[in-house]
Specification:
108 residues, mainly alpha, elongated
């Protein structure tokens, strides 16, 4: 990325900022923030994976294939984070549903 005058994180940060802004605006309008925040976290991980995949292509096109290795490592880290969130979706949803249907406050 430096070879083309950009940092690897600038593209990723731009994409992440846009996604975060849109997600916050959508979630503010509803009362089910807990599951929606969970979904956003899950989607964010895959957004990061997509950004790193693009960065690999850009790095390779710029003749900086060595940078791609670091991006591939980051992809594996993001996949692990997505898997951790994936394991939370059902239990968090069940807890949310139990609280919501019993009249307890489900969102913090």
């Amino acid at each position: 990325m430096k070879a083309i005058g950009e940092s690897g994180s600038s593209l990723k940060e731009t994409v992440a900022g846009i996604v975060g802004t849109v997600g916050a605006a959508v979630h503010a309008a509803t009362g089910d923030e807990t599951p929606k925040n969970l979904y956003s976290g899950y989607a964010y991980q895959y957004d990061q994976i997509a950004a790193y995949r693009s960065l690999i292509v850009i790095a390779e096109a710029a003749g900086q294939g060595a940078q791609a290795s670091g991006f591939r490592t980051s992809i594996e880290e993001e996949k692990k984070a997505a898997e951790a969130i994936d394991r939370l979706i059902e239990p968090v949803t069940k807890t949310y549903l139990t609280r919501e249907t019993s009249g307890q406050k489900a969102d913090s």
